[in-house]
Design goal:
heterotrimer, A alpha+beta (about 375), B mainly alpha (about 280), C mainly alpha (about 260), A: about 375 residues, alpha+beta, Rossmann fold, 2 domains, six-stranded mixed beta sheet, five-stranded antiparallel beta sheet, C: about 260 residues, mainly alpha, MetI-like fold, two-stranded antiparallel sheet, 11 helices, about 75% helix, globular
């Protein structure tokens, strides 16, 4: 089956005037062998991007602000020049084609609705410019608006809509263009929680109805988890392999990506041992199969930590020196007798307070070399 | 800050100031126009307004002035739009175009009129170039571009003066808006021409509407240009007013006031239109 | 991303635009410095400063130039001084008031100067100021006030009031706020307003003609007179004499504007 979207060896450039923020990269970490030829007015953002998305699937690209995610989407959409690489849509090479011929719709972070057209005219726009008659175009537009549950505002002017409505109208309009690929730039970034679930639901509907390949970029893991079937992350100016959310959370490809996911406590320690490697930290030891020897960081999720009574089974005794409440978990700052500290994450059911002592066992972790 | 002092600050004070500085002179001068037209001052007969409204010479003047203003504004607008759309995106050319376009702006209208006369009259520079190229042999063979019934010379002068102004307005509107709308249109499948036609142009025109009206009304009321470049029959409206005012005889003065009132009505309705467009934009 | 289609066409268009913008100025310069330029010569036989000399040697022309300067400066200063507080008060006002003031200001600009002139002429006559420089000055004030009120209305509508609020809560009195916050930020708009006010009066024809009744001579009126009596070269020199200060004044205000670190555009 031909993938709906295939991108190969794309180098993404930042237009310097558009994105002043640039994620600084130590030159030694770039693995690509292609020389960094930066044309005037541009800075290299992402190197050798490869991605494949099947029709009806959704790939989320996770990355910090300024990492080049938006530039990547704009380049794929044809809004920004490409120096290297290829883009294929449904097997068709669109690398040299202008944006309007790629069958790729790009949705801005803030929905861009044409201010001088009503909602209905906005949604019917892609049909009208393809020569569809007014009646037919409006009929289809109304259909899409109803599918996304914003049929009630069809006669309104764009500036009279709420944030959530604007997003849904933009989606309805994108659906009318019947694209093979939908690119969404931080679709949920500017929304408050109340509206968030509505728009997420709208995105799901859009994905099902259109059957297009979707790529969305975001810096928020929850957004990615809500909609995507696969997740890639931006790490050291390139994209990691696309993994399912479960796989990604279980084994993030590197420390930078793990940090991006924002769900792990980072515990410092050392990996050593002949035979099976063992990770040693202030709270004790645990098996670290396959981990490289040396200073390391273990990434642990809150449900992978278990608190035990102090001294259980001869484990190290740690005293609690700090406790921070978070929305979904608690951070505990622990200290051993030598004065070394570590911060772990635990669930809300944990009741220990500063001053108390306890032991802690880590059931599972991912290990990365620290530098 | 209590309600009444706030009311004073936001309503009474501004109105009072505007009333004294602007309102009084305008109202007084219009008042005198009315009085003069009705024969209350200046020792004129009444009924001037009625006479003027039925005078064909007056209506021909009105038509000429409207023609000059419409044609001049339209050509200046089309030219400005074409240049703005072609230059709008290229930042380097855009700045250069802006500097060049800004040159005619401060030039006083009289100077413009003199220059256009020297260029386009039958003994002007273009005519001489035509003679050098052996296309004509005498000045009279050169087409009459000034003092002609179509007021071509005036319209050329209008375009020279107003195209740069409209161009600058268009360029600044374009730079304000950015490319997001066009990008959205393009990924929805619109070709560059479709995007220009359905998105850029309508929005540009909407934003420029007050400026277009301002240009129109300015040209309508300009005395200098028709004075130097326009035919003497029919006279452009401002010329007609001035001529009747300077003429001897109280009756023609009254005519002048009456015609001036007609011109006032025209000007004020365009002012209202301008204000409506400005607050809509 | 800039489409790089048709770069040649764009350069040509820029060239055409440049020629279009400069042609009238070029003809004025050529004519004013020409000596013996007769039909059908496309280029003057020679150049000298004769027309310029005649222009300034004549005491009447010098008087007209002086009048124009006096009127221009007086109009600029007075109109700016009045329009600034008016614009500020109106911008702070309720929306209908703002619109009313904008309408009034635009009416002052939209009314043909001829019409204003005819009405103001009667007013000025009744005040006993007919044919005086002061009377003409008063008439010039009307369109100048209109333009400048629109300018300051725009400036103050976009004004960031938070600057003054911050200064006030830090203890600055009203006069301190004027001196330390407002005036520095207003330097650019004030300079542009002065330039604009000057130009409105400097280029004025209809009002001077009607209110001055022929007794008050200004440079534009002199240029018209020279043109009508067929003195093309002197008229061209006069037109340039009219244009050059305008270019300088506007250029100077733009330079001053660039040098000011203005928060408000």
């Amino acid at each position: 089956m031909t993938a709906a979207l295939e991108v190969r060896q794309l180098n993404v450039l930042f237009e310097l005037s558009a994105e002043a923020a640039f994620a600084g990269v130590p030159v030694t970490r770039i693995s690509s062998s292609t020389p960094l030829d930066e044309p005037p007015g541009f800075r290299v953002g992402l190197i050798d991007v490869n991605l494949t998305v099947a029709a009806g699937d959704c790939l989320a690209i996770l990355g910090a602000s300024g990492s080049g995610k938006s530039s990547l989407l704009r380049t794929i959409a044809g809004l920004q020049a490409m120096r290297t690489g290829t883009v294929r849509v449904k097997g068709r090479d669109v690398t040299t084609r202008p944006a309007e011929q790629r069958s790729i719709v790009y949705l801005h972070q803030e929905p861009v609705l044409f201010p001088h057209l009503s909602v209905l005219e906005n949604v019917a726009f892609p049909l009208r410019i393809r020569g569809v008659s007014k009646d037919e175009a409006y009929r289809r537009a109304v259909d899409r608006l109803m599918t996304l549950q914003v049929g009630s505002v069809m006669g309104n002017a764009p500036d009279a809509l709420s944030g959530g409505q604007r997003h849904r109208v933009a989606l309805a309009r994108a659906l009318c263009a019947e694209p093979d690929v939908l690119l969404l730039d931080e679709p949920l970034a500017s929304l408050d929680p109340a509206v968030l679930s509505d728009v997420r639901a709208a995105l799901q509907v859009a994905r099902t109805v259109s059957g297009a390949a979707m790529v969305l970029v975001t810096h928020d893991l929850d957004d990615a988890l809500a909609i995507a079937s696969h997740i890639s992350a931006v790490s050291w100016c390139s994209l990691t392999e696309a993994l399912t959310p479960d796989d990604l959370l279980r084994t993030p490809p590197d420390l930078e990506t793990a940090r991006l996911l924002g769900v792990y406590a980072e515990v410092s320690g050392v990996v050593s041992g002949v035979g099976e490697p063992v990770f040693t930290w202030i709270g004790g030891q645990l098996q670290a199969p396959g981990a490289a020897h040396g200073a390391a960081v273990a990434c642990v999720r809150s449900h992978e930590t278990a608190l035990l009574a102090p001294g259980t089974a001869g484990m190290e005794v740690l005293s609690v020196v700090g406790r921070t409440e978070r929305a979904h978990e608690i951070l505990l700052e622990l200290r051993n007798t030598a004065g070394e500290t570590a911060v772990v994450r635990v669930g809300h059911d944990v009741a220990v307070r500063p001053g108390e002592s306890m032991s802690i066992s880590i059931r599972h972790a991912r290990f990365f070399q620290s530098h | 800050m209590n309600a009444s002092s706030r009311h004073a600050r936001t309503v009474v004070v501004p109105l009072l100031m505007a009333g004294t500085l602007l309102g009084v002179p305008i109202l007084v001068s219009i008042g005198y126009l009315v009085a003069g037209a009705l024969g209350w001052v200046g020792n004129t007969s009444s009924g001037a307004v009625g006479r003027m409204l039925t005078d064909t010479a007056v209506w021909r003047s009105v038509m000429l002035s409207l023609w000059i203003a419409t044609a001049g504004t339209a050509i200046a607008l089309i030219g400005a739009l074409m240049i703005a759309l072609l230059f709008g995106r290229d930042r380097r050319l855009d700045r250069l175009a802006q500097r060049v376009a800004a040159l005619p702006l401060p030039v006083p209208t009289v100077a413009t009129a003199v220059a256009v006369l020297l260029l386009l009259s039958q003994s002007g520079w273009l005519s001489r170039v035509a003679a050098q190229m052996h296309l004509i042999t005498t000045p009279a063979q050169f087409p009459a571009l000034v003092y002609d019934p179509w007021a071509i010379g005036v319209i050329v002068a209008v375009v020279w003066k107003e195209l740069p102004f409209l161009l600058l307005v268009a360029l600044s509107l374009q730079s304000l808006r950015g490319s997001a709308l066009i990008d959205a249109a393009r990924t929805l499948g619109a070709t560059p021409w479709q995007a220009t036609r359905t998105i850029t142009l309508p929005l540009l025109l909407r934003g420029m509407a007050p400026s277009i009206v301002a240009v129109f009304v300015f040209v309508l009321g300009s005395l200098e240009l028709p004075l130097v470049l326009a035919p003497s029959s029919p006279l452009a409206l401002p010329m007609l007013i001035q001529e009747r005012r300077q003429a001897l005889g109280a009756d023609s003065h009254a005519d002048a006031y009456a015609i001036a009132l007609i011109a006032t009505a025209l000007a004020l309705s365009t002012a209202l239109l301008h204000e409506k467009l400005r607050s809509d934009a | 991303m800039t489409p790089r289609r048709m770069p040649i066409a764009r350069s040509l268009l820029l060239l055409a635009l440049t020629v279009f913008a400069l042609a009238p100025l070029a003809i004025l310069i050529a004519t004013s410095f020409a000596r013996g330029w007769f039909y059908p010569a496309a280029v003057p036989a020679g150049f000298d400063g004769g027309a310029w000399h005649d222009l300034f040697a004549d005491a009447a022309h010098r008087g007209a130039l002086l009048n124009s300067l006096l009127l221009g400066i007086a109009t600029a200063l007075t109109a700016t001084a009045c329009a600034l507080p008016l614009g500020r008060a109106a911008a702070a006002g309720a929306r209908p008031v703002r619109r009313a003031v904008a309408l009034l200001a635009f009416a002052a600009v939209a009314l043909p100067p001829v019409v204003l002139g005819v009405g103001l002429q009667l007013t000025v006559l009744s005040l006993g100021l007919g044919g005086t420089l002061f009377g003409v000055f008063l008439s010039h004030l009307v369109p100048a006030l209109g333009y400048l009120t629109l300018v300051f209305l725009g400036v103050f509508t976009r004004w960031d009031t938070r600057l003054e609020e911050a200064a006030a809560t830090l203890g600055a009195t009203a006069s301190m706020r004027w001196r330390i916050v407002l005036l520095p930020l207003l330097r650019r708009p004030i300079t542009e307003a002065l330039a604009l006010g000057f130009l409105v009066s400097w280029a004025q024809v209809a009002l001077t003609l009607l209110v001055g009744g022929g007794a008050v001579r200004t440079l534009p009126l002199d240029v018209l007179a020279m043109l009508q009596s067929g003195q093309d070269q002197r008229a061209a020199a006069g037109a340039l004499a009219l244009t050059i200060p305008a270019l300088i004044v506007l250029g100077a205000s733009r330079i001053a504007a660039r040098n000011t670190a203005a928060v408000v555009a």
